[in-house]
Specification:
This protein is of the alpha+beta class and about 350 residues long. The chain is built from 9 helices and 11 strands. Among the domains are: about 45 residues; about 100 residues, Phosphorylase Kinase, domain 1, CATH 3.30.200.
């Protein structure tokens, strides 16, 4: 082998070695990047709530919605497109209000009809109590039915509350407990179990009310025939018990007198399954859709959760020709309810 050939082979070997080094570096960098991306994905997924994971799984394209709809309806169900206005995110009978979901600003000074209606089967503590019209209409039907079943002395003690009234009730609760010897910190914590903080009460959206009966101690309401009647029948008129005994596990006092209007089909499902409203909404986020049917089979509802578009209105699809309503959930999505034939 001459010197020239040896030199060429030496240079070639250097290039081959360099190429190998570069290839190894690229592989290492790529693997590192992939590992980092995978780690980030895992970290994000593990830190996201179950609701957020479920929300992301429902895409707003026609194909995925068809899949969701036909998972509970016949595959040949004909659909029609509707547009859900973004303003509906904080409106409707199913918006969630609790310690984590604040009352939307538009409810601050709402103008609702008075609960006081001449000739009603109930009486009111004050004529200055209010309720949304649909909830009021169903309240009339419900109390008329209770009266027909022999319930007497039905009293409504509270309905819609302003921010100021809710704050006053909270402050008064603290003051009463401080007067009984509690520290202000203890009194505030205890009051929060009995009275929602201002801005976090269902009373502030005009869909909740408190019942009572004449001539009884308020704390004895759960043992009355009226409370038992409501527990058995209120769902038929779209009302649910907001804070059953299980609410105590969440740090909220059992309130057998506090009822919230959500609509008939939803109230039936919540009642039959022993749920609270937050649990019902979480279930819809997880399942995507359900069918609800009343006991006699005369009414059937198709219910679907739809995640809102990040900007603007949201397209959705319903069984063609069906009557429907849309409610926001106050959590970034909509609940569509269609009446089925």
């Amino acid at each position: 082998m001459n010197r020239r050939t040896s030199k060429i082979l030496m240079v070639g070997g250097i290039f081959i070695a360099a190429a190998a080094v570069i290839t190894i570096a690229v592989v290492l960098i790529t693997n590192s990047a992939l590992s980092k991306a995978q780690y980030n994905d895992n970290r994000i997924n593990s830190s996201s709530s179950i609701l957020n994971q479920n929300n992301d799984s429902f895409h707003q394209d026609i194909q995925s919605q068809e899949d969701i709809i036909t998972s509970v309806l016949p595959a040949n169900t004909e659909l029609e497109e509707i547009t859900i206005k973004s303003s509906m995110l904080t409106k409707g009978n199913l918006i969630l209000i609790d310690k984590d979901c604040k009352v939307p600003e538009e409810y601050a000074d709402a103008d609702y009809p008075s609960i006081y209606v001449k000739g009603s089967s109930y009486v009111v503590r004050s004529t200055e109590m209010y309720l949304q019209q649909e909830a009021l209409d169903k309240l009339q039907e419900m109390t008329d039915a209770a009266a027909s079943d022999g319930i007497e002395g039905m009293l409504i003690v509270d309905g819609y509350r302003t921010q100021e009234k809710q704050q006053r009730l909270f402050d008064e609760g603290i003051e009463d407990l401080v007067d009984q010897g509690m520290s202000e910190e203890e009194a505030t914590e205890k009051t929060a179990q009995r009275v929602a903080k201002a801005g976090y009460s269902e009373h502030q959206i005009g869909l909740a009310l408190d019942f009572d009966l004449h001539k009884i101690n308020y704390d004895d309401f759960a043992d009355t025939d009226f409370a038992k009647w409501l527990d058995k029948n209120s769902w038929k008129y779209g009302y649910i018990l907001s804070y059953p005994k299980k609410a105590e596990d969440m740090g909220v006092m059992y309130e057998p007198w506090h009822f919230r209007y959500v609509g008939e089909g939803h109230a039936k499902y919540i009642h039959d399954n022993g749920m609270m409203l937050n649990e019902y909404i979480e279930m819809l986020h997880e399942k995507g859709n359900i069918i609800i049917q009343d006991e006699d089979g005369n009414n059937k509802w198709y219910v679907q959760y739809i995640k809102a578009e990040e900007k603007g209105d949201t397209k959705a699809y319903i069984p063609k020709g069906s009557e429907y309503t849309v409610s926001g959930d106050n959590m970034g999505g909509y609940i569509l309810t269609a009446v089925l034939e």
